[in-house]
Design a protein that fits this description.
The protein is mainly alpha-helical. 50% of the residues lie in helices and 10% in strands. The longest helix is centred in the middle third of the chain and has 19 residues, at 55-73.
């Protein structure tokens, strides 16, 4: 079994401001500042919890997430951040061999994607990814699925 843990930072966003999920206070940095701070301090990922109460506020949150993605498109990340992301992917790939279900998932994804890469080849491909390739890939991302739950009061 892999000997790693992932740190996924979670932050709320309400009325255009980052909020603490525990109590909804918004006396912290902007969402963008907080995302960069988490990233620079070892977080492996970011989960943005949309705490919007209106459709308009929800659109503000989506716009902020798109702004973070645009930073990625513009190359607003360091070489060490890129290397950390690569290492995270490599660790995930290596751990995909830890259980029968994960092995099945690895090969099924390989088959469905039309690629015939063995694990060492896949890892080598990840190691060779450049910052420019990340920017090009980020530019193709589209918002796919957003869940906006509305409570009845």
């Amino acid at each position: 079994m892999a000997d790693f843990k992932r740190l996924i930072a979670a932050v709320g966003c309400k009325e255009g401001n980052a909020v603490f999920l525990k109590d909804g206070r918004s006396d912290c940095a902007s969402l963008k500042e907080l995302a960069h701070n988490f990233n620079n301090n070892g977080a492996d990922g970011l989960l943005i919890w949309d705490c919007s109460e209106t459709d308009e506020d929800h659109e503000v949150t989506i716009a902020q997430i798109k702004e973070l993605l645009q930073d990625c498109c513009n190359g607003s990340f360091t070489e060490s951040e890129l290397n950390a992301a690569k290492q995270s992917l490599i660790t995930s790939l290596q751990s995909s061999q830890d259980s029968p279900g994960a092995i099945e998932g690895f090969y099924m994804t390989n088959l469905l994607s039309g690629r015939n890469l063995e694990l060492p080849d896949y890892i080598r491909a990840v190691e060779q990814v450049t910052a420019n390739q990340v920017c090009q890939a980020a530019a193709t991302f589209k918002c796919n699925t957003v869940y906006f739950l509305k409570g009845v009061q």
